[in-house]
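quick q for whoever's on today - can somebody do inverse folding on this one?? i tried earlier but teh output was garbage lol. tokens:
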């Protein structure tokens, strides 16, 4: 294993993530200070730390219910459970993530919870469109999120971002209320805190997007390390991108798809993720997981799952499933 290359990649991702989290927390604290001084700044910071240490506001069970997910029994997909156990063991997790099935044609997978109690949910689209090696790469990607505590980091970023937006709105309301004093008295206005307050929500969103991208790149690297090969994830991402456009495109024909601005994408561009993975595959020398577990079984991995698949649709919460 090319440990020097891996350490370099991971160190860069850690530094970028830490910098983004610090900037986000500093922005929130500054907006609080601009509104009411040092006391409110410390209260806001203490609140977000308390919420970070405690469990996330939205429980995994709520999200699973939103996606109509159900547990996957060992008897239904023994090979997948074997994969998850082998990958979790290689990742050094003490507790193997629980597997859940999402009855959706949309190709999707996500992780929830913490290292001690984690969940990996995979959609029917993933199970039907990807081969077992590509599925292993997706599972390794999600288990990397669990290993790196990405869920907790992103929860902290989300909480800090929400508090920043609330404080920004409060500050703008206070300025509006005091507008007569500003216009008809000699009251002076400090424009720097005001501008920061106005643009803080937008900056906060961009920081969260940047943090999400860094964590995705790190999980891609983690998948390559855990699986011992970066190419299966590159292949899985290419398939997922192809089928995603086919499924969603069929819903809106003949409406032409409007490209999403790159700055507003939660995940990095798929083409860039694939490029990085293939570049890493050329330079890194890893021990393949297939030496420890057979990834090439003739049996279909999910052939005993009872299927009740939903087409993509828009819910009031804004989620596709």
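ok took a stab at it. sequence:
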């Amino acid at each position: 294993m090319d440990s020097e290359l891996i350490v370099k990649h991971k160190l860069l991702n850690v530094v970028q993530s830490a910098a983004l989290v610090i900037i986000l927390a500093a922005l929130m604290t500054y907006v609080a200070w601009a509104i009411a001084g040092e006391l409110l700044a410390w209260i806001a910071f203490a609140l977000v730390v308390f919420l970070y240490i405690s469990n996330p506001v939205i429980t995994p069970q709520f999200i699973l219910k939103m996606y109509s997910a159900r547990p996957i029994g060992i008897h239904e997909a023994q090979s997948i459970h074997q994969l998850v156990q082998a990958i979790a063991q290689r990742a050094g997790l003490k507790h193997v993530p629980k597997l859940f099935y999402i009855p959706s044609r949309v190709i999707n997978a996500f992780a929830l919870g913490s290292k001690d109690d984690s969940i990996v949910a995979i959609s029917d689209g993933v199970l039907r469109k990807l081969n077992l090696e590509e599925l292993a790469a997706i599972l390794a990607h999600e288990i990397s999120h669990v290993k790196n505590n990405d869920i907790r980091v992103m929860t902290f970023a989300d909480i800090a971002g929400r508090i920043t937006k609330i404080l920004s709105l409060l500050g703008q309301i206070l300025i509006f209320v005091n507008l007569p004093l500003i216009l008809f008295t000699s009251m002076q206005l400090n424009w720097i805190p005001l501008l920061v307050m106005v643009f803080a929500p937008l900056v906060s969103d961009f920081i969260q997007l940047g943090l999400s991208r860094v964590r995705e790149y790190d999980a891609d690297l983690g998948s390559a390390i855990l699986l011992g090969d970066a190419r299966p994830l590159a292949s899985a991402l290419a398939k997922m991108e192809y089928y995603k456009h086919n499924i969603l495109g069929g819903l809106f024909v003949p409406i032409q798809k409007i490209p999403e601005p790159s700055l507003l994408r939660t995940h990095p561009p798929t083409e860039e993720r694939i490029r990085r993975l293939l570049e890493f595959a050329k330079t890194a020398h890893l021990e393949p997981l297939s030496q420890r577990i057979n990834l090439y079984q003739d049996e279909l991995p999910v052939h005993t799952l009872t299927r009740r698949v939903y087409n993509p649709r828009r819910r009031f919460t804004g989620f596709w499933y």
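fwiw Residues 248-264, 298-303 have pLDDT under 50 and may be disordered. also The two ends are 39 Å apart (CA to CA). so keep that in mind when u check it
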